[in-house]
């Protein structure tokens, strides 16, 4: 194995580690949300720092590889892809932090009705699955997995649109719970973003593996 | 677009050694084409086919056809000297004649029997300007070209080639004997020459191929593995072998 | 499309090619005429008796034993004398000598010696070896004479060989902790051995064909006994040839040509070895 | 048993001198070698004078000579305290030769030869018709033995009248064969050299009869032997150093020389001594040995 | 480790001593030539030596003019060079540029064989073969003459010229040829415009060495040129060269110490000076050339 | 100028062009918003395509420079910075599109009260100024400008927080205008994002010029 | 950390030419340090100071001190041969002796007088394994090293250097005469050697400096302009001149 290959491998390992942390964040935020575990949410919020650090580290690492190894072709695409993958991962991490913040700040009892009504858990699970798929396709360098992720969006979008409308009418009907509604809405949007960002990651993987640029094709 | 150079099913043998295998390619006017590939893959051999410099090698044998401006250059009726005027060549090591800078540049004209001083002067000025050392050398045109630095020598050699007004310029690793700074200046020159010439360059330095050429041909064991847009080749090679080669995962 | 000047140039080119071929052919043809005449004349004389017989007044019973052995003696003695001195001098000049005035003086001096006519060496030897040192016209005198004669050749060719050893070979050796002499002995000389050997052989082959300086020191004589000692009188093939060619009897001319064949054979063999070595070395050692 | 004896005889005999006498001595040495293989015999040919030069210094044992020793040489020998004996071993004729294509010069007088060869002739006598008006007005090319040879000394002495005195503008060579070649390839040549060489090259050169006032005489074994070919015939000698003569191998060599020379001389093409002369020479040698011993 | 150092110093001393032998040789030559010829010049004025047109030191009427010997030397050398240089150069060019590699590989050593033949042999070749052959065309040619040995000497030094010039041509980087061909030059143009100018110093050196060699050549002229000191530049008549004279005297019995004997040293010094000048010229050309090596 | 410098210059020019387009988008969205010019909003929405295209082009361009020129040091940093600059520009573009969409979809009369009350125009202008500052610092490679942008955030954030609270109470008070309130909120967030992204750009410029990484230092 | 090599205020002159100017630097054990800089800036000169290879140059003069393992190597008492054993050197062009592979490797031991066959065999095997060509050459150890390819030759030269067990290895453009593939293999080798040796490498190829070295020193006109962590130097050089040089904006 050449020195460059070693570096590339290292980058990949680091990125996978970052994936892992982000996934934990997503999972923990989910748990905190549905078990109302504020402590866990705090944990999520604090851990965001680590995600940032990882992003910076990997970026630096890639910068060094660019400076020292002059990567081309698949190596170059890999590194460029990773640059954007970590950017998206970081944003997913950001989203979990936002969710965690909402959980922490709004220390009220959930309105189970609307909560269940909008199928938030289903939406979250779906988004979570997207993140997992993104990691899987990155790890196994499997373009098919990436494509599966990119094409799977109809369900979630419908669910989200529905939920949004429901929340709007919920607010309309419960003006006193406007804040709560708004938080819910914000949360929904974050979750949806996580899914979108996973798809972005999938697109980068396709770019890396097949040199095809899928970005901005049906992107939100 | 009409091809400037067109090779059809070319095979080359040195004795029983088959060094170019079924190569067909087309090169268009005013483009820079780079040949890359591992040592011994036949880059130089193929390049030198284009101005018949291989004719001097006794064991050389070739099959197939090469057209330049729609003329089969391996036709018996072809005048090789005329061909070489049209298809100039620059070599790996700067190889100025042990003459003055001036005489180096006008060499090609002198051998055509041109004696008109004014005409020669003009050519010297024009070509030295073209290669960008007119200002540096205009006051010492009568000094030996050997007294110049490597990079300057190579520029004089290029000027010498341009003086006979070729339409194609072949370059066989023109910077491999130069230091990085001279290399950079020569690369810039190549980059700017292409508006007037069709340039074919052999290089060991992949970045160089990347920097100077429009299209790149990757040779391997005498075969043309891939020939495509340089950016494409370096970002997204079509053939796995090319990718292996340019990313250094090889042998 | 083809311009006139190009046509003319090509024509000139062709003419010159034939002219060159002609010149070369002339050279080769002369050589073969030469060899042919000599071989035709002398071939039949080459038999065992010819090689094993002492000189005789009768052409048919005369042989070249004495001059042949003399030639071998001279070859060996000259090698023993000239090679160590020549190689040592070359090593000194190439490896030790500083590039100052003195070194260039020695260099000019050697270049000059290489061009001094052989007969002048004869004059030198006559005075120094034969008279002052009192060696007479012995093998040793002859060998000293010829050694001096070929010394510049040995030095020059050895220096060339040493020069062709790239500096990096020396540096490699120094960098491994070798002293100067160890470097010369272990790295430089083995690398230059082919070149040195080639030069030495060519020099020796030149030496054994020399006549004039030996004539000057008085080696033109009839001896009946084979030389067994460096201080013995001697004869060598060129002298024998010169001697025989000056005899009136036809048979001696035949003898002379036969001896010429032998002498040529020896020089050819030596040259052949040298050329072989040179080619082998050139092919093998590409720095 | 005798062979054993012979075999035991060792030592060396060092000979130098005349190139004219050289073939005889060489032949003797060759035969001698067959019987006494362990005796080293070296025969050099520095010419008579060159040989004497060494001989009178005691550097050589025997000197071949195509003329008698000169007073000057003898005086040096004396100062070096060297005594010697001279032995006549054969006769030689000097032949005057021309190119076979030369159809005018059949004979020549001694005066004419002098006119051609004397120092005053240099640059003046250049054409055949200057010698005899009926001869063609063609250049005359002269060839002759090397200035350092006894042959030259003898020729100048008897023809010009003074040893070592002749014109200088002629082609000279130590190598008689070269002279033969020269004359044979030059229609206008006139040369002189040892008669022996002429015998070997009858087809290449033509002999000229010499007229000493008694009519033209061609050189031949007969005419030399019966002394009618004058003045160009002469005796050849060997000189032996008395100290060397004390050495067994030198004695044996000279004995052998005297024993075998007549047959060898004839073989080589010189003219041998007659029986009487031979006997005298042998006696002279024996006497010398006796005296030498008694000293 | 002073022992190693001592050893190194000792070896260096030995090597240096060897190098000095060449100087001793030169000193020896100069000593021998000068010491003997000083006596000569005590008796013969240098002016006479250089201006007298006759050379007859061995005869009764003695003249000590070196001119006849010099003219003989120059004449034979001139003829030799006239033969050797054009043919040698053509061969060099042909072998280097035109001949197929295989042929070059065979021809070059073959020609070098010409240089390896002992000169005695050449001498007889000139006398026995070339002179009679020439006489077929030039009836007035003497049996001994300057022409025939000159030609044969020329033949003998052809390999010298060819080989050295070929080396000089060969040393020109192949890239220069390619540059020239690459611009549409023919071989001939390449040879005359690039190769010969680039190799000029090497070629000049080869020519000078050839001349020097011809000056010093002995046996050929000794055998075939006659030994008749003639102040002439007519190649058809016998002449004598300096070298021949030395051999002639060496073979003869001139009394050592006599003025006649010393003539050979005077002649020797003339020869030495001649070749010395030539060798120096060639040496300095070579030096200059090395500095400008491509 | 070397070939590489030319390429870098070209990249810069292209990026400036993209800046220009994005700025136009921001400006047009502003105009459309405050002049209720739906046609202009449509225009903004349609033009988003162009921004995407530019991003892809510049990315490709940078990829080529990496593959062919082996940039190091400042060149390398510049290209990496540009990669992230255009990413952020694209997101600003996205925001303008979102704003345009809101303008297009909600064809009701503005509630001038709340609209003016929340100082939207001030916020927007401030964000716009940020984008302009980003461009300026990129164009002039002036690290001081970039720093000015990075440090100027307190104002806008306060304004936004205030506006958010006002909108929430507005919704609470006007349940029938929930949709409108939500749109306003969404718009507010987009505008705020534009400002954040401009700051990201400024940070990249600092990275490029000074090799200092400011990312994740007070990033939102 | 203790310096392995420490130069203090070093100045070098060739005659009156001041080619190294006030250079002080420290190199630590088991690091790879690269010297870069334009042609003629003194890289080779400085490198060759470290094993006193400049001593052979007559006009050479140096001031200042260089310590290796705390020993002043320009001290009079120093044994230069011992120093050179400790500080091995690999050259630009592969320069095997025209001997067998085996004899090349054991050269340094032989000149130390070591004759023990077993010991020599062991060293040959060990070092050839170290440089990674044992498998390729083990069956032809007695063949001439000149028959190997350039890359293999260079490896043999490195093995030869390692055979005398140096602790520092100097390399002066060790791959500049090699093709890219051989270059890559040598670079890998250097990268792996550093665990056992301190390596100082001169290179014209900036990427190479980047790839193989831990720290890089940039020389310019005899001065040490910048000496820092390689990654740092290539991503964020401290000195403007360095930046100009590595980005090719120079001359
Ligand atoms: N004159 C020749 N005679 C015989 N074979 C040759 C000759 N020139 C080249 N070859 C062989 O032809 C093949 C191609 O050589 P060529 O010089 O074209 O390779 P290349 O790609 O230019 O290599 P490099 O990068 O080393 O210059 C090689 O295997 C080489 O050994
Ligand atoms: N033997 C020498 N004698 C005199 N000057 C020398 C010698 N060797 C080098 N120099 C000079 O010293 C300076 C530094 O040379 P050095 O070889 O160290 O440069 P470098 O950085 O290694 O260059 P390159 O990259 O070309 O190898 C140059 O100006 C050079 O001309
Ligand atoms: Mg090539
Ligand atoms: Mg260097
Ligand atoms: O050799 P010569 O007999 O003539 O003295």
**In percent terms, what proportion of residues of chain C is strand?**
under 5%
**Main pleated sheet of chain D:** 11 strands, mixed
- Which structural class best describes the helix and strand composition of chain D? alpha/beta
| Total count of domains of chain C | 2
Distance between the termini of chain D: 32 Å
Secondary structure tally, helices of chain C: 11
What structural class do you assign from the helix and strand content of chain C? mainly alpha
Any idea what the radius of gyration of chain C is?
Answer: 23 Å
Shape of chain C: globular
Listing every helix as H and every strand as E from the N terminus to the C terminus, the arrangement of chain C reads HHHHHHHHHEHH
Query: What low-confidence regions of chain D span 5 or more consecutive residues with pLDDT below 50?
Result: none
Structure description:
The complex is a heteroheptamer, with two copies of chain A (about 220 residues), two copies of chain B (about 250 residues), one copy of chain C (about 290 residues), one copy of chain D (about 300 residues) and one copy of chain E (about 290 residues). Chain A has about 220 residues and is mainly alpha-helical. Chain A has helices at about 5-35, 40-70, 75-105, 110-115, 120-140, 145-150, 155-175, 180-210. Chain B is of the alpha/beta class and about 250 residues long. In chain B, about 35% of the residues lie in helices and about 25% in strands. Chain B has ten helices and ten strands. In chain B, helix 4 (about 115-130) packs across helix 6 and helix 6 packs parallel to helix 7. Chain C is mostly helical. Chain C is globular. With about 300 residues, chain D is an alpha/beta fold. Chain D is built from eleven helices and eleven strands. In chain D, helix 10 (about 250-270) packs antiparallel against helix 11. Chains in contact: A-B, A-F, A-G, B-C, B-E, B-F, B-G, C-D, C-E, C-G, D-E, F-G. At the C-E interface, helix 1, helix 3, helix 4, helix 5 and helix 6 of C face helix 1, helix 3, helix 4, helix 5 and helix 6 of E. Strand 1 of chain C pairs antiparallel with strand 2 of chain D. The structure holds adenosine-5'-triphosphate (2 copies), magnesium ion (MG) (2 copies) and phosphate ion. One magnesium ion (MG) binds near residues 43, 44, 172 and 202 of chain B.
């Amino acid at each position: 194995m050449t020195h460059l290959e070693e570096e590339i491998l290292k980058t990949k390992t680091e990125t996978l580690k970052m994936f892992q942390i982000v996934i934990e964040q997503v999972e923990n935020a989910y748990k905190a949300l549905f078990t109302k575990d504020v402590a866990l949410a705090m944990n999520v919020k604090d851990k965001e720092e680590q995600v940032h650090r990882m992003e910076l580290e990997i970026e630096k690492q890639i910068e060094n590889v660019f400076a020292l190894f002059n990567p081309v072709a698949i190596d170059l695409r890999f590194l460029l892809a990773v640059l954007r993958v970590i950017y998206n991962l970081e944003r997913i991490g950001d989203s979990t932090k936002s969710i965690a913040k909402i959980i922490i700040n709004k220390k009220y009892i959930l309105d189970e009705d609307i909560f269940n009504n909008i199928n938030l858990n289903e939406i979250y699970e779906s988004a979570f699955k997207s993140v997992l798929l993104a990691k899987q396709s990155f790890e196994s360098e499997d373009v098919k997995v990436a494509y599966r992720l990119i094409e799977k969006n109809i369900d979630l979008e419908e669910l989200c649109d529905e939920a949004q409308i429901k929340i709007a009418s919920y607010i309309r009907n419960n003006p006193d719970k406007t804040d709560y509604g708004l938080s819910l809405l914000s949360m929904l949007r974050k979750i949806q973003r996580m899914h979108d960002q996973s798809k972005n990651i999938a697109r980068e993987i396709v770019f890396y593996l097949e040199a095809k640029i899928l970005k901005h094709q049906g992107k939100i | 677009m009409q091809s400037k150079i067109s090779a059809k099913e070319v095979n080359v043998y040195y004795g029983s050694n088959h060094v170019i295998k079924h190569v067909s390619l087309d090169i268009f006017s005013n483009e820079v084409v780079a040949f890359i590939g591992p040592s011994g893959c036949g880059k130089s051999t193929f390049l030198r086919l284009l101005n018949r410099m291989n004719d001097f090698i006794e064991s050389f044998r070739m099959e197939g056809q090469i057209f330049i401006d729609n003329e089969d250059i391996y036709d018996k009726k072809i005048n090789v000297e005329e061909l070489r005027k049209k298809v100039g060549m620059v070599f790996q090591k700067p190889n100025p004649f042990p003459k003055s800078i001036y005489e180096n540049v006008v060499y090609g004209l002198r051998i055509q029997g041109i004696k008109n001083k004014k005409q020669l002067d003009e050519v010297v000025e024009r070509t030295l300007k073209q290669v960008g050392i007119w200002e540096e050398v205009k006051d010492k045109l009568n000094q030996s070209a050997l007294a110049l630095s490597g990079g300057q020598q190579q520029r004089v050699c290029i000027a010498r080639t341009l003086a006979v007004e070729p339409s194609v310029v072949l370059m066989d690793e023109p910077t491999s004997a130069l230091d990085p700074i001279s290399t950079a200046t020569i690369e810039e020159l190549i980059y700017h020459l292409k508006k007037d010439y069709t340039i074919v360059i052999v290089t060991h330095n992949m970045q160089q191929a990347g920097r100077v050429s429009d299209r790149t041909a990757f040779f391997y064991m005498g075969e043309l593995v891939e020939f495509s847009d340089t950016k494409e080749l370096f970002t997204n090679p079509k053939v796995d072998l090319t990718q292996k080669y340019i990313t250094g995962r090889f042998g | 499309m083809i311009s006139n000047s190009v046509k003319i140039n090509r024509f000139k080119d062709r003419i010159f090619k034939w002219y060159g071929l002609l010149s070369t052919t002339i050279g080769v043809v002369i050589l073969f005429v030469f060899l042919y005449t000599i071989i035709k004349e002398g071939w039949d004389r080459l038999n065992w008796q010819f090689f094993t017989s002492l000189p005789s007044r009768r052409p048919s019973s005369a042989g070249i034993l004495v001059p042949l052995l003399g030639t071998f003696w001279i070859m060996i003695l000259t090698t023993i004398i000239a090679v160590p001195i020549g190689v040592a001098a070359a090593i000194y000049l190439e490896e030790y000598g500083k590039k100052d005035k003195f070194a260039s003086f020695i260099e000019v001096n050697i270049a000059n010696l290489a061009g001094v006519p052989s007969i002048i060496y004869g004059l030198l030897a006559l005075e120094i070896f034969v008279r002052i040192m009192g060696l007479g016209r012995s093998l040793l005198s002859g060998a000293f004479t010829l050694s001096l004669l070929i010394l510049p050749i040995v030095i020059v060719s050895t220096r060339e060989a040493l020069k062709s050893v790239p500096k990096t070979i020396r540096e490699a050796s120094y960098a491994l902790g070798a002293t100067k002499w160890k470097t010369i002995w272990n790295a430089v000389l083995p690398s230059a051995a082919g070149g040195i050997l080639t030069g030495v052989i060519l020099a020796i082959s030149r030496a054994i064909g020399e006549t004039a300086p030996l004539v000057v020191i008085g080696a033109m004589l009839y001896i009946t006994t084979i030389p067994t000692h460096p201080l013995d009188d001697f004869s060598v093939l060129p002298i024998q040839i010169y001697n025989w060619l000056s005899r009136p009897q036809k048979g001696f001319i035949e003898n002379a040509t036969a001896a010429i064949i032998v002498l040529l054979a020896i020089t050819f063999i030596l040259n052949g070895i040298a050329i072989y070595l040179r080619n082998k070395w050139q092919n093998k050692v590409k720095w | 048993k005798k062979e054993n004896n012979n075999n035991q005889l060792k030592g060396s005999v060092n000979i130098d001198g005349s190139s004219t006498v050289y073939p005889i001595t060489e032949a003797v040495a060759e035969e001698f070698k067959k019987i006494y293989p362990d005796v080293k015999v070296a025969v050099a040919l520095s010419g008579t004078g060159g040989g004497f030069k060494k001989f009178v210094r005691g550097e050589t044992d025997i000197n071949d000579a195509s003329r008698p020793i000169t007073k000057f040489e003898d005086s040096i020998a004396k100062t070096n305290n060297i005594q010697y004996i001279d032995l006549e071993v054969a006769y030689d004729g000097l032949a005057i030769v021309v190119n076979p294509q030369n159809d005018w010069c059949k004979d020549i007088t001694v005066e004419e030869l002098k006119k051609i060869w004397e120092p005053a002739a240099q640059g003046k006598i250049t054409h055949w018709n200057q010698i005899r008006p009926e001869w063609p007005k063609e250049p005359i090319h002269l060839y002759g033995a090397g200035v350092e040879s006894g042959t030259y000394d003898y020729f100048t002495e008897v023809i010009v009248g003074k040893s070592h005195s002749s014109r200088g503008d002629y082609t000279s060579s130590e190598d008689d064969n070269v002279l033969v070649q020269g004359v044979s390839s030059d229609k206008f040549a006139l040369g002189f050299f040892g008669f022996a060489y002429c015998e070997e090259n009858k087809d290449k050169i033509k002999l000229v009869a010499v007229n000493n006032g008694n009519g033209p005489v061609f050189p031949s074994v007969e005419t030399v032997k019966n002394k009618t070919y004058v003045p160009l015939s002469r005796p050849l000698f060997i000189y032996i150093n008395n100290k060397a003569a004390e050495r067994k191998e030198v004695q044996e060599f000279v004995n052998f020389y005297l024993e075998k020379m007549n047959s060898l001389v004839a073989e080589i093409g010189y003219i041998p001594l007659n029986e009487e002369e031979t006997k005298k020479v042998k006696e002279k040698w024996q006497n010398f040995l006796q005296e030498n011993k008694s000293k | 480790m002073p022992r190693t150092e001592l050893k190194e110093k000792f070896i260096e001393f030995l090597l240096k001593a060897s190098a000095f032998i060449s100087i001793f040789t030169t000193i020896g030559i100069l000593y021998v030539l000068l010491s003997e010829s000083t006596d000569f010049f005590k008796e013969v004025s240098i002016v006479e030596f250089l201006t007298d047109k006759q050379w007859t030191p061995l005869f009764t009427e003695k003249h000590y003019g070196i001119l006849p010997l010099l003219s003989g030397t120059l004449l034979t050398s001139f003829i030799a060079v006239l033969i050797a240089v054009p043919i040698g150069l053509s061969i060099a060019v042909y072998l280097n540029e035109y001949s197929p590699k295989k042929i070059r590989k065979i021809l070059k050593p073959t020609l070098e064989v010409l240089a390896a033949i002992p000169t005695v042999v050449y001498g007889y070749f000139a006398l026995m073969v070339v002179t009679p052959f020439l006489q077929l065309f030039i009836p007035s040619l003497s049996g001994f003459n300057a022409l025939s040995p000159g030609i044969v000497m020329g033949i003998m030094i052809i390999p010298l010229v060819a080989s050295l010039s070929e080396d000089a041509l060969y040393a020109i980087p192949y890239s220069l040829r390619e540059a020239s061909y690459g611009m549409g030059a023919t071989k001939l143009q390449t040879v005359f415009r690039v190769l010969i100018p680039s190799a000029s110093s090497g070629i000049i050196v080869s020519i000078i060495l050839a001349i020097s060699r011809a000056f010093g050549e002995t046996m050929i002229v000794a055998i075939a040129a006659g030994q008749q000191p003639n102040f002439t530049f007519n190649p058809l008549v016998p002449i004598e060269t300096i070298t021949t004279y030395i051999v002639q005297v060496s073979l003869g019995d001139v009394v050592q110490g006599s003025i006649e004997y010393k003539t050979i040293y005077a002649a020797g010094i003339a020869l030495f000076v001649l070749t010395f000048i030539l060798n120096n010229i060639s040496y300095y050309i070579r030096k200059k050339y090395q500095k400008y090596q491509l």
